[in-house]
Structure formats: structure tokens, C-alpha cells
Amino acid sequence: MDPKYKETIIVNAGESFKIDADVYGKPLPTIHWLKGDHELANTAHLEIKSTNFATSLSVKEAIRVDSGHYVLLAKNVAGEKTASVHVKVLDRPGPPEGPVDITGVTAEKCVLAWKPPLQDGGSNISHYIVERRETSRLVWTVVDSNVQTLSCKVTKLLEGNEYVFRIMAVNKYGVGEPLESEPVIAKNPFVVPLPPNAPEVSAITKDSMIVVWERPASDGGSEILGYVLEKRDKEGIRWTRCNKRLVSELRYRVTGLIENHDYEYRVSAENAAGLSEPSLPSTYYKACDPIYKPGPPNNPKAIDVTRSSVFLSWGKPIYDGGSEIQGYIVEKCDVSVGDWTICTPPTGIKKTNMEVENVLEKHEYKFRICAVNKAGVGEHADVPGTVIVEEKLEAPDLDLDLDLRKIVNVRAGGSLRLFVPIRGRPTPEVKWGKMDGEIREAAIIDITSSFTSLVLDNVNRFDTGKYTLTLENSSGIKSAFVSVRVLDTPSPPVNLKIKEITKDSVSLSWEPPLLDGGAKIKNYIVEKREATRKAYAAVATNCHKTSWKLPRISMDPKYKDTIVVNAGEMFKLEADVHGKPLPTIKWFKGDKELEETFTVTKLKENNEYNFRICAINSEGVGEPATIPGTVIAADKIEPPEIELDADLRKVVTVRASGTLRLFVTIKGRPEPEVKWEKAEGTISDRAQIEVTSSYTMLVIDNVNRFDSGRYNLTLENNSGKKSAFVNVRVLDSPSAPVNLTIREVKRDSVALAWEPPLIDGGAKITNYIIEKRESTRKAYATVTNNCTKNTFKIDQLQEGCIYYFRVLAANEYGVGLPAETAEPVKVSEPPYPPGKVTLVDVTRNTATITWEKPESDGGSKITGYIVEMQTKGSEKWSTCTQVKTLEATITGLSKGEEYTFRVIAVNEKGKSDPRQLGVPVVAKDIEIQPSAELLFNTFSVKAGDELKIDVPIRGRPPPTASWRKDGQTLKETTRVNVQTSKTSTLLTIKEASKEDVGNYELCISNSAGSTTFSITVIVLDRPGPPCDVHIDSVSADNVTLSWKAPGYDGGCHISNYIKTDETDWSIAIQNLRGTEYTVIGLTSGSEYVFRVRSINKVGASDPSDVSEPQVAKEREEEPAFDIDSEMRKTLIVKAGESFTMTVPFRGKPVPNVMWNKPETDLRTRASIDSSDYCTSLTIEKATRNDSGKYALTLQNVLSTATLTLVVKVLDSPGPPSNIAVKDVTKESAVLSWDVPENDGGAPVKNYYIEKREASKKAWVTITNNCHRLSYKVTSLQEGAVYYFRVSGENEFGIGVPTETKEGVKITGLSQQ
């Protein structure tokens, strides 16, 4: 076959492909073309051509199913041969593999799932298209045209409709064939719930009722979402819904009912499937309040008294009893008589005030009032105190109407009417006035005993103000005022003046009119007139001051940021202003108050002008204010001025890399020359300066820390010179610290010091970062990044190593530039002082001293040592020698002179501190107390071997040595001898034995003193025999022995013992480490004797003395209990817990064990476990019945032993005993009983008593708090048969009840 067929043949759908092959074989082979397991044959779509030596397969207009493995099979009798070709047809994919799995079907959604197509058309499936169709229609609707997974959730289905779904795979060649699902109906898997039971109603009022109901018996398989409550008026036929939203609770308060109407209710439950059928309707309920007698009238009082009558007033009762108040009854009582009489008709009066007449002057009366409704006469309310009938004086008073307490607004030209009720006895004198002027003569004032009025027609703005009213009589004075605002055009503006004049403009300023005409000034009209003319021309008709308003908290948030405006543009600030009384409004720029100005432009140079201003409010145009004289339009010369904004007066802060903008408003005529400078140097080349006639601006982009500083601005013209400055702080990381110095160098540390950076970057330096670098490396390593001081000690440096160091400052904006040490630093220091200095030898003219190396060489090699000496009485130290070793001999000393010596170590960094010899040295031949270098205090030798103890000694003069053993002088023999020289003493012991064991003392002495040393000698030999072999116990087949360890253990630990017995002395045990053993396997009735040998690592000892003869037989022992006093105490157990009583015992032969408890079979209630030495009883989940005494009996052939154990179970009490019923009447009976036999371990504190009618099964509690042994049961139904039961209660709960065995019939005859 052509080699190309070894690779996959790729064909586009619709194209044709052909596979050729040459075939050889003898005899001629048969040729077969296969695809999969099927042999191919000629069709209109596929053609196979074969000859004796060739074959071909052609496929026309290939489609996706033509993809696959094609196999050419040639075979003859000699065998067969195959060749395969793989063909891939690039086409749309096949249908997804089914079936379509439909799950989660509800009334409106479902979930589809499928498998990928078996044929992907030679390209990966990019996505799927899902469509749906109702079975009643032919049109397919797209559900989702880009499904990336093998599942899809379909929503928005119509309940009850039947749907078919199809899925099509999509690859880059197109949309494949669809896979259709089986039809499915969109419906919920659950149903609506059952209807609830009929609702009930409680808490009825005249306009509301509370309706309650129970849950339905079934929720239909879906959780109930809520309930719908409906009502129906008895007079209507329609059910109306009570709740707009679903009610989630089982109660609902229905409101808006009509009083005295009857209503019935029904309720429906709703779940995901919908609303249930409504419940059965309730009975009818009437909407009405319950009616009771009214409460007492409220706040009764006597409001006025004359010589013949009393005026009373009162309020309605707080509680009307649920019925309208029909009237009031007033009663009076003459205190001198004491009788109450009605002052009103029997049905009462409707009013809540009354004049009571027919009273006697100078008499004292009491009054009371009662309210009457449908239910009757309510509780009376007494008028406080008593009332004396007499004429009384009353200070003047007035009642300002609510409208008069506010500002009274009247339009200009209208009428002002002020009506004020007054009172007072005698009738007060009335005076009207005006606080800021006189009342016009046209005012009409009317005065009576009960009121006064003021009427003013055709009012104008001058009638605005506060009108005062004063009442005065012999009892006092009363005053009040009424504020009146006449809505009129405003008065002229005030303080009109010229602010600025140029050749073509004039700036005017003014203040608001004193009288705003009762309305807010809306705007102003500005007019001008040339001096040569008589008519004014309007310059502006809409000039207003809304450009300047006092800000409030709710001001537009944009004003929180800086408002940037280009020169020449207009800006506007707005705010809402509130306050009572109306606040005054002032605007400030810095500390300077802004005035309202208006600039008139387009004037002719050197012309004279007149100006006037009119204010306008809602009522019209007010009177004009005119500037006296004329104004000439001409420029004027002004010295330069700089107006620094308030922000520029503070420090201007800018973030690093940000932009600095300094905008300054300037003035001056002629236009001044502008010059910007920087105080600490030159301004950056990045700076851009802009200058106009009204402002100048300095802009620096991409600022850094070096742009911080003071910027000076200078203006100059021929009228003068003006300067100002702005401080700028750039918020950047700081510059490098300064003056970095090395303060101290030690062998493993370096101390650095520095000063803060000159530029802190506009923020406080928070910390410093310290870094180090070895001279052999290029990279710095951080030592610390949290140094807060200006010094730091760097520890743990490598001794002798050379380092560079650098310090960087950090603030909140980052880490600044580094400051680095200029020269490398070697980490070393002068060495530590030498170690201990020791005097080795001294003569009349020399002294020899030694010393130890210093603890540290300071990081540099020690080059030598300097030895200095000081003569007694002198303060001068002189160098006596320099050496490189740790020893020096000082010569040339004077005999008898006292010297002090000290040693100094030296390295390349310098000298160490000196180390002084501890004591002065006198130059003389000295005596040294003898000493010895004893390496060990204990020496051991094997028996028969030789022991040598050689001890080096020293002293001046040479010491003598003597040896002692166990306190006695050591005797020298041919086996034991001592040899002593000037420098050592040697003790030799030949053929060591047990006799050589002991404590030896070596005493060395000379004229300077003596020293004694202790030495222990151990000879390793076999141990001595054990002693005191004793027989402790005997049985038929074993004997227990004990003995004491030997007095001599052979110089090493006794490892074990060997026991032998009988006349043949057989070994009973060979490796026993203790001093006790039980010999087993003896013959019962035989007599034995025993002996013991000790063994150590050297060998076995001689045997011990034999024991007393002993016959092997059983020993009998009476049974007994091995318990302590704690076991004999009462065992307390909580109910429900388990307990176990374990009792050890003894006895031979082993006794029988028996547990017993009265009236209890312990074989079934308890678990008993016994051995030869112990018995235990376990009870699970104890109850009160497990309380009591438990008897344990042990018995063998010798005796019997008994033990009683007491258990108390803390439980609720048992049933009371002897319950009886007596003294039965037609509605009561008396129960009596005795205390429970078992109180559960705690006293019974009270009893529960219950009853049950014979016809019912449920028990009803009568009382749960009876503390006696009898109780009278009342409220029984005559003729009924009752059962009673009583339960005790203690601190652990309620116990078991006891019940009357027979029912008790309740009759009038007493029963027992």
C-alpha cells in the first residue's frame, strides 16, 4: 500500500476518496474489504474494484458515517494478510447519544441530560443547542443556543402542557442531527394541601377580631407557604379576602369591621402547587365592644365662683365602658348639712360644664360628677377640695389664638384684625402698643370685659412689627405681643457705595433693605444714568445674592473638594439656609467678609454716571437707593496685592509623583511683574509658570522630596512691591540619614549612630532599616527593618570579618535613600583579660606564674602577653616581661619584698584589661602545703590479681606519706608494701583476697601541714552464703521460702539465688533475683529441707544453713473478709447509674460465696462474679428498689462468715401506701394515704393528686403542691364515678403513683 495510508486520511464531507492497494500471492488470494466487523459490498455510494494483482475502494460524496477503520483482507490456502486505513470525514457531528434523561419536572421547569455524540464529525464539540416543542404544535423554540455542558435546565414551561425536547451538537463544521426526548407533561409532583379545619375567633372588638386555625392534616407533599383568610358579612353574599399577603402564622387580626355586623370566616392553605379548598366556614361572630359602666369623669374642677353660683367643668371619662356617654349627673353637698342633692335632671346633662345655682353665699360646698351610658351610672369623680361661695378676685389673663402666636401675614392694602379673648376681675384696663413705633391713628380698637380687638385697614410695609397688648387690674398685669408682617414691596437697599472704578466699568456694593416687605428679596434691579441725561437705563434686572449663601451640613458633597476654576471663568457657590428666626447671612474669604457687589460694564471712559438700585420681592419692585453725586469712569493706579487662598496659607502637601499647583490671585495697576523663587535653592527645571493680569500659577509635575520647601512670590509695579510665600511639603520617602558613624566595634558586634534625614518626605520618620554587607559580597542583607532610634547595635557578626553597613529611613510613604559607611569595618576588639592567674613557684629572687587564655581573642589573634608587677607601697606598674606562652618567670626580685603581678593580653586591636594575681607574693623560699592528684576514690581488683595504687604528691618541703586501713596503720608484708618518693606514693597488694577489702586512708604531711585522702578497695570474689532461711507458708504441693541477703556480696551485685532441697540437694530454681520464692511440684506428705546459694558475676557462694524440716500438706483457714472501714459505709448511687460492690476475702479451702437481698432475686437482677480471693456484685441502671441491705456469706468446712452492705439509691419516691377515699359528698371527696415505703433516698416534700372519670382515659391534675397525707377534692360532678391517684415528689423527681382500686361514685351519701 502507498505509505500515505499509514496516516489518517482526512476528507471533507461531500468529497470522494479512494484507497488503492497491490495484492500478491500464490495461488491468487481472495480480496475482502471490511469496516468494523462488516464486509463491504458495492453500492451506489461505495464501489470496490479488484483484479488479480490490485484492488481499490472508492467512496463518493463522503459523509460522517464513512469515517472509521477500513481493513483490506487478502487470503489463500497459504495464509492471510491484512492492511488497515483510518479515514476521518470532516462533517457536522452526529446526534447526541440518548436517551434524554428528564428529571426535576415541575409545573414550570425540568432538567435535561444527555451523552456526547458517538460521531463528533472529526472536530471537538463546541456546544449544544436545546429546543422544545409542545406536542400540539409543529414549531420548535430555542431554549438555549450555547449549552457548554451535558445538561440544561429548562424553565418557563406552561403547567399541564406536554413537551418534546431535542438536542443538537455543534462543531466547527455545523449543527448536527438532533436527539429527541420522549414527551413529558409539565406538572408538579405534589398537590395542593387539604383544607384546614373551620377557624375560630377570639378577642372581638367593634372593628376587629383575631381569627385562629390549625394546620391542615396534609400539606400535599410541599411545605405550606402561608394561608389566605376570607370573611363574609351576614348581610352580604360575597367572600372577601382579609389579608393581602400570605399569613405565615396560625392567627390573624382582622380589622376594618363594621360595628354590630355578623361575620363568618374561612381559611385556605397554599403550597407550591397552589391554594387548597377553603375550610368549612366558622360560626357567625358579632363585631361589637363589650359594654360596661363608664369610668369617672376626667379632671373635674370649679372654674369660677360668684356670690350665688359655682361654675364646674370636667372632661370625658378615660374609659366609656364600651358605650357612648349619654349624659352626666352633678351632685352637691353643703358641708354644714352633709346631704348630697342632684343638681341635674335624673337623666343628666350632655355638656361637660355647668353653672350650679341656688347656693348660699359664704357656705362651703362639695361637688361630684358621674357619667351615664347604656350600662348605667358610673363611678363618680369628686371636685378637689371644697368650694366657698363668694365673689373672688382674678388676675388678668388672655388667650392668644394659635394663629396669633405665629407671625400674622397681611398683604399691603388689606386689613389687619387682631382678636384676643381676655378675663380678669375686676375687668382689666386694656392697652395696645407697637414696639418699634406708634400705632397709626387709623387703627380701630374695641374693648369689652371678655375680649379686645384691633383693626387696621389699608396696611403698608410700615405697619410691620410687634403689637403689644397689656392688661392691668388691681390683681396684676399681663402682657403679650403679636408679630405682624405686611407683605409689601421692599424698602430701598442701604449702604450703596462704589467699590471699584475703571475706565469702562464701575463695581457697586450694597446691603439688603431694612424692610424686605415681608417676603424674601428675589433679586435687584441696577440702573445707570449719564449725568447729561435724565432717564435711567436698566443695567441688570436679575441681580440676586443666591451666589452667597451660608452653607449647611447638607451642602452638595462636591464642595468638600477644591473647586478649580480657570482664570476669567465664573464660579458659583450654593447652599440652603434654615433657621428660626431667619439667620443673617455673611460670606467670608479668609478672615475678610465678602460684600455683595455688581459690576456695571461697557461704560465710556471719563464720562460721569449716576447709579441706583431697587430690590424686588414677590410683591413687586421696591423703592430705589441712589448713590449721591456722579461717578467718573476712569482707571486708577493700585499697588500690587496678593490674595493667598486659605489653603495656601497652610502647608501645601503633595504626594510624590503628583502635581504641585500653586494658584494665586493677584492685583495691581498697571499689571505687576511676577517673580517666583525657592528659598532653599533654585526652582526645579520641571516647573511651569503662568502669569496673567489677575492670577499667576506655578505647576510642577512629578514632584519629589527635593521639591519641598518655601516658595516666594514677588509682585512689583511702579506703585509698589508685594511679596508672599507658600510652604510646600512633598509627601515622599525620606532622603538619606546624615552623619552615619561607627560608635563601637566589638568582636561580634558593631554599634552605629546617625542623624535623621534633612528631608523627612513630609511625614514623620517611622523607622530605620539597617543593612550589612560582607566585603567579599555585593548584596546587602537586612539586619532589622524596625529600628526606631538613631542608634543600633548589630550583633551576631562573624568575628574577624570585614563589613560595610548602610541605614535607610522609612516613613508612611516608603523607604528613602541609603547612607553607607565610607570605609569597611573589621569586626574585632581588644581581647578579653587573660584567665585565672596562678602562682606556680616563688624563691627569694624569682617568681613563676601561669595563666589561662582569654575567653575571647576579640576577633584577632593574640600576639603576646605583657606581665607587669607592682612593689608594695608603690602605685606604679612596671613591665617585667613580655612572652608569647601562658607562663612567665620573673627574675631580679628582692628577698623579703612583697610584689603584685598582673597579665595583659595583646592583639592587633590593642591591649586587654589586666588580670591580676589574686594575692601578693613575698620573694622568699616558701612552704607549700602538701597535695595529691587522686584520680579515683574507689579501686577494684579481681581476687588473686595484683592491685597497684600510684598517687602523685607535691609540697614544700617534700611531704611524707602514710597509709591506714579501716582506721588501723597498714601493716606491710611480703604481699602488701608501700613505696614513697618526693613526687608520688605507691601501694601494692599482691594476690588480692577478701581480707584486702576495706577503706584505706592516705595521709601526706610536711612542715606546712597535712592532707588526708580516702580510698575504697573492692576485691571481686564469690559472695557469702545467704542467711536466715525461713519457711513462710506450706500447702500440699508447694512451700514458700524467704531469706536474707549475704553479709558479703563479693564486691559486686548479687544477680540471683539457687535453691536446693531434699537429701539429694536438687536445684529448685536457678535464676531468682528476689529473696522469696514458692517451691512447687512437691509430693504431698513428704518432708523437705531447703538451702540457698548467692550468685554474682564471679560465681556462686557456699550454701546457706539448711531450713527446718517441713512436711508438704494443705493449711486450713477460716473464711474472713479483707475490707476496710470505707467499704462498710453506705453506698450512695443515683437512679439510672450502675454500681459494683467488690469484696476481697480469704479462706482455705476456698469458701462458697452467697449474695442475698430480702424480697429480691439477685440471680436475675444482678450480675455476680466470684474467684478464689474476691467476689463482686454489679447492678445496671439502679432504681429505688435496689436500695437496702445486701448480705454476703462465705462458708467452708471450718466456719461461716457474713458481711452486710447497705446501698441507698437516690431516686424519685415509690408509690404511697394505703390510699383511701372517705367523706364523699355530692361535689367532693377526701383522699388519705401513707408515706411511700421507699422514699428514694430523700424526704417526700409534696404530693401530686390526679383524678380520672371512669368514662375517660386521661388523668387530670388536681394539685401538685400537697404537703399533707390527706386532701379534699372539690368541684366533682354529682353522680359521676371517679378514680384517684397520688404520687410523691422528692428532690429527685415525681415518683410512682398509687391508684384507687375501685371507682368512687360521687353522691350526697358519705362513702368510705
UniProtKB/TrEMBL annotation:
GO terms for biological process: cardiac muscle tissue development; sarcomere organization. It comes from the Eukaryota. PROSITE patterns: FN3 (PS50853), IG_LIKE (PS50835). One of its GO terms (cellular component) is M band. Keywords: Immunoglobulin domain, Repeat. This is Titin. The keyword Chloroplast does not apply. Residues 1100-1119 are annotated as: Disordered. Residues 396-483, 551-628, 640-729, 930-1016, 1119-1204 form the Ig-like domain. The keyword Manganese does not apply.
